[in-house]
Amino acid sequence: MTEEMNPIPGQAGEELNELMQARRDKLAAIIDKGIEPFGRHYEPTHHAQQVTDQFADLEGKTVRVAGRIMAIRGHGKAGFANLRDMSGQIQLYLRQDILGDDAYDVVHQFDLGDIIGAEGEVFRTRTGEVSIKVASVSFLTKSLRPLPEKWHGLKDVEIRYRQRYLDLIVNPDVQRAFLVRSKMIQALRRALDERGFLEVETPMMHAIAGGAAAKPFITHHNALDMKLYLRIAPELYLKRLIVGGFEKIYELNRVFRNEGISIKHNPEFTLLELYQAYGDYQTVMKLTEEVIAAVAQEVLGTTQISYQGQAIDLTPPWRRITMTDAVKQFAGVDFAAIKTLAEARKAADDNGVHYEPGHGIGGILNAFFEAKAEEHLVQPTFITRYPTEISPLAKRCQDDPEFTDRFEGFIFSREIANGFSELNDPMDQKERFLAQVAQRESGDAEAHMMDEDFVTALEYGMPPTGGLGIGIDRLAMFLTDSYSIRDVILFPHMRHRDTNEG
Length: 502
Known about the structure:
It is a single chain. With 502 residues, the protein is an alpha+beta fold. It has two domains: 13-149, CATH 2.40.50.140; 172-318 and 379-488, 2-Layer Sandwich (BirA Bifunctional Protein, domain 2). The protein is 34% helix and 25% strand. The protein contains 16 helices and 18 strands. The radius of gyration is 29 Å and the shape is elongated.
């Protein structure tokens, strides 16, 4: 009754066909016995982990469990099987004299990956393992394909993302990561709800792509015969709601950006955006560190995490430093002393920092920051006072109109949050939109489009407001110690393959 895990489907054609044929032969044998191989309703009384955790109360009592068979071993008239459900794994003890000849014969048709129900008495084996002495089994689903042999040994790791269902079956750590992600999102919602925020929903398809500097995905509405954009951010709609009288709102949903794929980027990702009327960037900056620390504490039980071998302390308050000071500290260039575009370009050229022809002093400062400073921001850090040139929706600093009341939060050199005091001056906003339009016309496909209706909304009056965006996938990466964003997105986008994955 012993079965070993088999090679990954598609790696050995003839062997695979033989293995699959053997499973179909067992399927036919099950059907011949009058057993439905793709069963119906079955109601477990317990999960696997519950049986282990509550052994003191359940010993000698009858329980029903359901799950997938992940190991089979034994000889003759008795054997063992490991059954795994979403909570964990439990050992099944299968004896011919308890099950009866017919039922035990069905047990011999089990394959790894089959889904069964089992009912029996809870006991502990001589080796001390909590188990179930099975009195009856129910065939729930016959698995017609062999499971991979050793998941961590796969050479083509991308198959984990292409066939996530296999990844989840064979690798319990992957399933646990997504359970953490789910709990993280629940904790985020709870933290915001407790602070008086209202969750709202805004359109996914926009007539004008706005709210962020990114290339949009474009689609077409046939009935209206109009071009639409999958949203790159919900920002401009959410701020319309602030104009309409809502004071604390958030949206937690997908956004779409037509950009490259990397360990930090997926074209479809989850974003939390929130707005608080009568607040500012300081308000939402404080909220950022408080909420992220609270979520880590609730989900992991600590604000001290480890990411890729690096200890990270999420405990507030986080470090705060201006972009100008960060560049001075890490690149040795003082932009406070740079007064002309020629000086900024020379500094960039001297330091090997790439910049675009259309960049002003602010754009070059940001290029310096990304090239020379960002990599040093390992512990949670807020970078403040972003140039107005790259912040078209943020309020200008009172003491210097070339900068804005904006921040970005960084952990492990990666942006995790972006927030600012929202621009609520409609005349200033229109001028900045026009400047962005000029950048688009000069070839910058990520510059903002003109949104006349948003300017109209601001003309009715938007109160001073603090706005915040948090990348949910990146936060999940930190809380699950995942190297790639693909490890925290159930079905990440992949390059198309013509071949069948098996």
